[in-house]
Amino acid sequence: MPPEFRRDPVSGRWVIIAPGRQQRPHDIQVERAVSGGREDCPFCPGHELMTPPEVLAYRPGGGGANTPGWDLRIVPNKFPALVREIGTRASDGQPGAQAFQASDRMHAIGAHEVIIETPDHDRPMATMSEAGVERILRACRERMLALRHDDRLKYILVFKNHGAAAGATLAHPHAQIIALPMVPLVVQQEIDGARAHFSAEGRCVFCETIEQERRDGRRVIQEDADVIAIAPYAPRFAFETWLLPKRHTARFEDASPDEDRSMARLLTMVLQRLNAVLDTPPFNLVLHTSPLSDEVADVYHWHVEILPALTRAGGCEWGSGLHINPTPPEDAARALREIRLYT
Questions:
Q1: Which of 130, 175, 179 lies closest to 150, judged by CA?
Q2: Rounded CA gap, 5 and 339, in Å?
Q3: Active-site residue set
């Protein structure tokens, strides 16, 4: 197919789908290695004192805090981008200077936590059990509900970097939570687009997208009764994948147990498909959910985005905001859909 512009129906963001660029040397970049083995890994069992004290842990057999025997731990990031109080260490909990509001600057108030997904150093999410991934979702929800009580915070971002090219610095499976005093621009653009669509059409643009993609079928990767995985119509990245609950819900925290199970199941299966087609690529995984303070229940729809880190951004992307994607989403969805999984 010839190159074409495509416009994302939610945010209004334009991308360029340019299949001819698949032949460029070095266009696909796969950098997998990250540092560290079990011996010096701060996330492995027995090394609990190498991290700040945990804020949440699941220990099926009981046991004391910051000791082995856990299935999952959440700890403050040792090198945080944001802190709860200014003028103190992020972990000591003592009051410090409050954020000051100005047009161009404010203190980096917030929270930055690490979800240690499993005690197994060599078990990436694609190989976890459905119950293991469901446990991660439950822990994310528990921390989000706890953090939302801080009225300085406006948005809670959950994300996962897997592989060096995606920004991971440690091999042990982990994700991160960042609680922000503002709504990120990317999310705000989605909300603004969803609100404009609702005002014009009287319905959620994400719900409409799900219906249209199911009718069309070409960009559907997998679905069940509760969740659908699609290659979005205007993807920024090769093999970009979205997972959306079929029931309209703005907040991830309001997902049902059935939706949790379905999301966990499809998430592992989509990652297995990506591994099979792309030879275990690095990727970023991001949860998009409703802001804490904005009332967007009717217009927004929470979802998960998987963004394989396969191509380099260049001057066009940085200068214009236009992403150039060498893989049409129809081709990506077909390749992922046709992979036969053995479970």
A1: 179
A2: 28
A3: 174
Tokens encoding 207: 């719900």
**Interval 296-331: pLDDT, tens:** 999 999 999 999 998 877 887 888 888 889 999 999
Buried b (16+ CB within 10 A) or exposed e, 123-161: ebbbebebebbbbbbbbbbebbeebbeeeebbbbbbbbb
**Dist. CA 82–CA 70, nearest whole Å:** 26
Task: Give whole-number Cα distances, 82 to 14, 79, 110, 155, in Å.
Answer: 31, 9, 5, 13
Question: Rounded distance, CA 190 to CA 172, Å?
Answer: 32
The domains of the chain, with CATH numbers, are: 183-338 (3.30.428.10)
Task: Locate the DSSP E strands across the chain.
Answer: 4-7, 14-17, 56-58, 72-76, 111-116, 155-162, 174-180, 220-223, 227-230, 241-245, 283-288, 303-308, 323-325
86-116 pLDDT per residue, tens: 654 444 444 444 545 555 676 788 899 999 9
Q: What is the pTM of this model?
A: 0.90
